[in-house]
Amino acid sequence: MTDMPLAIDRQAPGADWPRLAPAVLAVACFGVLAFALTAQYGFGYEPCVLCTYQRAAYGAAGVVAFLAFLWRDRPARRDALLALSGAVLLGGFAVAVYHVGVEQHWWGAAFCAAQPDAAIGTMSLADLKAQLAVKQEKPCDIVDWRFFGLSMATYNVGIFLALGAAALAAASGRGSRR
Questions:
Q1: What is the pTM of this model?
Q2: Count of structural domains, the chain
Q3: What is the extent of the structural domain holding 162?
């Protein structure tokens, strides 16, 4: 019998995952960031502090993934940048999990605006007017938008985990022939 290669043995020119992963990762990160900014500026959904931290993680991971794309022909540098992007995304995953816990009242919010409390009754009228004149931060436990019963932070848990795992898998070379 002849030693005929199978179609699966040949790698299609565009199917080099470690070289394509940085571009896919950057587009995904910037796409999620664009969605969040559209929700804020297009539809008026105000972000809380934890939402802003998650946006920063998407932005930083996207920039690092774009740098990895620029170094796509240098495997060591590309893989190091992909690993860094994956680590940033897993950090965003941790923030998103914390945010979901705050929304569900599983724990308190250490980084978010506090709800008004009984101290308002002890304030003078001038202090109360001054407090009302300042725009208050949005509390992190208030959910403005849900889709299928899940908040944006809940979706971010899955998105961060999937993108972080994909970045780390691409950095380690799993599923490719290098």
A1: 0.75
A2: 1
A3: 16-109+118-172
